[in-house]
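Input record (one chain):
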Amino acid sequence: MTKQLISLFRILLTTAVIILAGFGVNNLFIQPNETLATALVNKPEKKIKKIKLFDDSIMHRIDLDFNETDHWDKLVQQRQEADSLEITNYLPVEMRIDNTQLGKIGIRFKGESSFEFAGDKKKSFKLAFDKFEKGKKYQKIKKLHLNNFFKDPTFMRDKLYLEMQNELGLPTQRSAYTEVYLNGEYWGLYLMIEQIDKRFIKRHFNENDGVLFKGEPKALFTDLGPNKETYRRKYQLKSKDFNKGWEAMIGLIQNIHKKGLSDESYYISLDNQFEIDDCLRSWALNNALVNIDAYNMHYPHNFYLYQNTKDHKFNWINYDGNYSFGAWSPNLTYQEMVQLPTSYPLEPTKKRPLYRLLMSNSVCQSKYEEILKEQVLPLLTPQRINSRIDDLKKLIVSSVYADTLKQYSNEQFDKCLEKNHGDIKDPGAFSPGLKEFNTARFNYLTNLLNQN
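The corresponding structure, as predicted from the sequence alone:
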């Protein structure tokens, strides 16, 4: 072999080694009678692993691109129509999430206080994947909430609340952080949360043919008699069978108001129709975290009820924890929130029959305090909560700092993770620090429950 041929062979061999090293030997499988060049040409591109929608260990990205230049005005107009005419419409928008193109979906504003008082731009959104294309979904999800962290400079209250609820074994919405971009402009950090719907029910109860109610707008469980028409504007029936749904709800309410039973007999009778212990777990969590936006607290809403078809029992489903960790209260000072009794002191004029009946029942009260002490309180252990807060900060801090539309400053974000911030005498200008509030609340409840 001549020196020229040897040199050429060495060059070709070196080139092949470099190609193999860069391409990855494990990715290259040369078939019989197939050359290296042919293998490289025929090798399909390596598939990119799809990111799980609710992988909360990473920061997600959602891009929303509007074709209309007046899209914001149209979103505001739709909200006004929803408030005045009770007409809910969605605006079309092109969506991409984690580099997956979904095409046209529906978008609208959501929330009450989080809409009215969250500034001009940092609104919460609801996304409907199937609004303009029937049956369209992404990773089995058809609707998605984008929450704007109203009243929460820490960006963590709702997330921590949902995580703790899930650890109690309760039906819980999945959630994860995401950066949101509108027409290429960074709109800020949001918490994306799944909708409570048939897919949510199927995942938790392994069926979805039962009766589903949303506890809005005035679902107090007051006995209004046997006529379903008197209940229709107080509860939202989400399942299709109209008669079956209302018969089940009225039956539950009448059983709640059953009289002449001992405390034990009342508990057994109601528990045959209603998962009392799971309801008590939900209520205990609301109380421990002073989440005033809940049925057993100040505002009687933010819950669903699902009656499954297996044992025909109703199941309580909590949602919305942005006011947790003492974020705000219309009638309690900071110190009163820290030292809140194990059951919320309702004014005598407040109609809350389910809460009053269960909390006055000796069997339910005993179970409730046991749940609070043995199951809920360990979740508030300062070392445990502080560690989780530190982990979440590492994930979101750069996204928070870059969010110019948020209600709070970067300084408030950093400080409120640790310590209280603002004028303690002015609830509108005061924000309890996550770690400081949780530690104080944990210590108070620990001492209180150990005395009993």
